[in-house]
Amino acid sequence: MAGAIASRMSFSSLKRKQPKTFTVRIATMDAEMEFSCEVKWKGKDLFDLVCRTLGLRETWFFGLQYTIKDTVAWLKMDKKVLDHDVPTEEPKTFHFLAKFYPENAEEELVQEITQHLFFLQVKKQILDEKIFCPPEASVLLASYAVQAKYGDYDPNVHKRGFLAQEELLPKRVINLYQMTPEMWEERITAWYAEHRGRARDEAEMEYLKIAQDLEMYGVNYFAIRNKKGTELLLGVDALGLHIYDPDNRLTPKISFPWNEIRNISYSDKEFTIKPLDKKIDVFKFNSSKLRVNKLILQLCIGNHDLFMRRRKADSLEVQQMKAQAREEKARKQMERQCLAREKQMREEAERTRDELERRLMQLKEEATMANEALMRSEETADLLAEKAQITEEEAKLLAQKAAEAEQEMQRIKATAIRTEEEKRLMEQKVLEAEMLALKMAEESERRAKEADQLKQDLQEARESERRAKQKLLEITSKSSYTQSMNSSTTALPTDLPSFNVISDSLSFDFKDTDMKRLSMEIEKEKVEYMEKSKHLQEQLNELKTEIEALKLKERETALDILHNENSSRGNSKHNTIKKVS
């Protein structure tokens, strides 16, 4: 009895010890994950689990976003997950997104997974028109997106219409021009073909480098009112705080860079921005909801911390990540160079093989023609020999007939004809016989000459036959040599080192000479990049001019008009912020 009670007590205690859990669904830009979380978990526990699952170390850019009452909110790290205003039903859904944006993507985004997540998010924002992008830049960005997805352009694989199902351009851009999908694809493909040799991470980084110069990139907008009650927009980004007219999200009226702000505070619904320069008036504004005020303050604190962090020496963790990234980049670059050399060698071997095969076919054709010529020569020689034989027989027959005529003439002469009439007739017959004998002699002579000519033609035909046989022997010897060369050459690609072998032979330790050579290559790449940037701007202007004639002016949006005005004045994102600061 006591044992049964003890067992029931231990079972109940085990049951009580089992933690209660709830299900969470995490949606990234390209995947969904589900986790079972403990009730006591805080936001940081869930966030760290997601980052570990993704292999993400640059966690300071990201957060877990959810929506409550049509307002965007972010999961707080130090607060229990279930203490947030999240729906009660399960699974509870959060979106893993970039909360803060870098000033310079190429310098700050170290991990490839970080770059990829930013690329997907920025691309979606451009296609959803949350970031304004001019038409010519949209085409260029689309070409880098295609390079990232499909790799190098191959006209045999990427045939016309291969982008028909892809969403690559904002609908605003497509509706703005009288252009068919085929015309857009042609222009995207023309630039896509120029990106040959870029890996996926390189194409995505080029996309981000262009996108980060767009005016609305990385800006969170909030509706506010100033002290006079005027409706305005507040923009928070990596550079500072910006005040916009509600109808113009491209050009700020006033900007407060983070390094010129002394303090940001809010009380209830009123925000106060105090500049460092005490001569500048304090800027105050109101927002409609307390929850929005908390979000604005979160973004201000996070962006300001990152702004100051960028201007200090990198932490040990960041230094290690950058060193690993440099080694990984150098390793991949060496692999790509080895792969490119192997590919070049294979292509050269294939070209040599094709050339030898072409030469072999040519020699075979020449041999066939020589055989045919030889056969024709043999037939001609046979015909000439047969004709010469017939002519000789005819000549013999004529000679025999001439001899018979001569005998007949002698016999007639020997016969005595007494009467004059007989004599006259005889003389006439003799005369005719003489004439016939003369003709027979001439015909015999002509036939003899013809037989000599035929003998000469036969001799020439046999000489031609001899030359044809000699040429055929030469071609046959060349053909056998070519076949041996062909067999040795076509075997070349199989002897080449494969990609895996090259990879296995690589080491993560680089010699000083390798690093010096890599440094020189990087410097060379910088110079090339400057030249490409100039060329790129010329291409953008060329495309803009080319499609300008197809633009439907009446479909231009307010942002299109504002962007064109800024471009005509030579205003860019950064110099505009400097002017209004």
TrEMBL record:
<feature type="binding site">
    <location>
        <begin position="76"/>
        <end position="79"/>
    </location>
    <ligand>
        <name>a 1,2-diacyl-sn-glycero-3-phospho-(1D-myo-inositol)</name>
    </ligand>
</feature>
<feature type="region of interest" description="Disordered">
    <location>
        <begin position="561"/>
        <end position="581"/>
    </location>
</feature>
<dbReference type="InterPro" id="IPR029071">
    <property type="entry name" value="Ubiquitin-like_domsf"/>
</dbReference>
<protein>
    <recommendedName>
        <fullName>Merlin</fullName>
    </recommendedName>
</protein>
<dbReference type="InterPro" id="IPR019749">
    <property type="entry name" value="Band_41_domain"/>
</dbReference>
<dbReference type="InterPro" id="IPR011993">
    <property type="entry name" value="PH-like_dom_sf"/>
</dbReference>
<dbReference type="InterPro" id="IPR000299">
    <property type="entry name" value="FERM_domain"/>
</dbReference>
<dbReference type="InterPro" id="IPR019748">
    <property type="entry name" value="FERM_central"/>
</dbReference>
<keyword id="KW-0175">Coiled coil</keyword>
<dbReference type="InterPro" id="IPR018980">
    <property type="entry name" value="FERM_PH-like_C"/>
</dbReference>
<dbReference type="GO" id="GO:0005634">
    <property type="term" value="C:nucleus"/>
</dbReference>
<dbReference type="InterPro" id="IPR019747">
    <property type="entry name" value="FERM_CS"/>
</dbReference>
<dbReference type="GO" id="GO:0042995">
    <property type="term" value="C:cell projection"/>
</dbReference>
<dbReference type="Pfam" id="PF00769">
    <property type="entry name" value="ERM_C"/>
</dbReference>
<feature type="binding site">
    <location>
        <position position="294"/>
    </location>
    <ligand>
        <name>a 1,2-diacyl-sn-glycero-3-phospho-(1D-myo-inositol)</name>
    </ligand>
</feature>
<dbReference type="GO" id="GO:0005886">
    <property type="term" value="C:plasma membrane"/>
</dbReference>
<keyword id="KW-0539">Nucleus</keyword>
<feature type="compositionally biased region" description="Basic residues">
    <location>
        <begin position="571"/>
        <end position="581"/>
    </location>
</feature>
<dbReference type="Pfam" id="PF09379">
    <property type="entry name" value="FERM_N"/>
</dbReference>
<dbReference type="GO" id="GO:0003779">
    <property type="term" value="F:actin binding"/>
</dbReference>
<dbReference type="Pfam" id="PF20492">
    <property type="entry name" value="ERM_helical"/>
</dbReference>
<dbReference type="InterPro" id="IPR011259">
    <property type="entry name" value="ERM_C_dom"/>
</dbReference>
<feature type="region of interest" description="Disordered">
    <location>
        <begin position="447"/>
        <end position="466"/>
    </location>
</feature>
<dbReference type="GO" id="GO:0005737">
    <property type="term" value="C:cytoplasm"/>
</dbReference>
<dbReference type="InterPro" id="IPR000798">
    <property type="entry name" value="Ez/rad/moesin-like"/>
</dbReference>
<keyword id="KW-0597">Phosphoprotein</keyword>
<dbReference type="InterPro" id="IPR035963">
    <property type="entry name" value="FERM_2"/>
</dbReference>
<keyword id="KW-0832">Ubl conjugation</keyword>
<dbReference type="InterPro" id="IPR018979">
    <property type="entry name" value="FERM_N"/>
</dbReference>
<dbReference type="InterPro" id="IPR041789">
    <property type="entry name" value="ERM_FERM_C"/>
</dbReference>
<dbReference type="InterPro" id="IPR014352">
    <property type="entry name" value="FERM/acyl-CoA-bd_prot_sf"/>
</dbReference>
<dbReference type="Pfam" id="PF00373">
    <property type="entry name" value="FERM_M"/>
</dbReference>
<dbReference type="InterPro" id="IPR011174">
    <property type="entry name" value="ERM"/>
</dbReference>
<keyword id="KW-0472">Membrane</keyword>
<dbReference type="Pfam" id="PF09380">
    <property type="entry name" value="FERM_C"/>
</dbReference>
<feature type="domain" description="FERM">
    <location>
        <begin position="22"/>
        <end position="311"/>
    </location>
</feature>
<dbReference type="InterPro" id="IPR046810">
    <property type="entry name" value="ERM_helical"/>
</dbReference>
<keyword id="KW-1003">Cell membrane</keyword>
<keyword id="KW-0963">Cytoplasm</keyword>
<keyword id="KW-0966">Cell projection</keyword>
<feature type="coiled-coil region">
    <location>
        <begin position="519"/>
        <end position="560"/>
    </location>
</feature>
<dbReference type="InterPro" id="IPR008954">
    <property type="entry name" value="Moesin_tail_sf"/>
</dbReference>
